[in-house]
Specification:
The chain has 148 residues and is α+β, with helices and mostly antiparallel strands. 31% of the residues lie in helices and 40% in strands. Strands 1-2-6-5-4-3-7 form a 7-stranded antiparallel sheet.
């Protein structure tokens, strides 16, 4: 992964989602070649709805899904938003709440390739909307259209 792309996101993240992405709380950067995973811990947990509101208010981001997970072993909510890559920014933001619907960790994926990003988003959408209580989700056709 290009370290310049990671550095660019690190500067942008603080301004883009200040309640969620504080450089002081960046815990890990894992480079997987085609993408990098940045793990942010929050100084104070925030409600998942607050995070979603922040994502929706950011003009660069589209919410991919918001689901509630209800199983015997797990309970909570998951959400994902991504930046439309037409403006040269290729990243997605994932968060999973605890049982109390509070977030304490946010994961950001920074991609090098449109193809890798699109496939990751499609897989993420299918994986999280199948068998879950879907609060909202993007249509697959709309997702693909963002990459045309």
């Amino acid at each position: 992964m290009n370290s310049k792309e990671i550095a660019n996101f690190r500067q942008l993240g603080d301004m883009m989602l200040p309640r969620l992405l504080d450089a002081n709380f960046l815990r890990n950067i894992d480079d997987y070649g085609d993408y990098a995973l940045l793990t942010y811990h929050l100084a104070e947990p925030v409600p998942i709805q607050t995070a979603l509101d922040d994502m929706e208010d950011n003009m660069d981001l589209n919410v991919l899904y918001h689901v509630e997970v209800i199983s015997a072993a797990t309970r909570g909510e998951h959400c994902c938003a991504y930046c439309v890559p037409t403006n040269g920014k290729m990243y997605k933001v994932n968060a999973q709440s605890r049982q109390d619907k509070m977030l304490d960790t946010v994961y950001v994926y920074v991609y090098e390739s449109l193809e890798v990003m699109l496939e990751a988003l499609k897989e993420d959408l299918v994986q999280h909307t199948r068998g879950q209580h879907v609060i909202c989700s993007m249509d697959m056709a709309r997702l693909v259209a963002d990459f045309m």
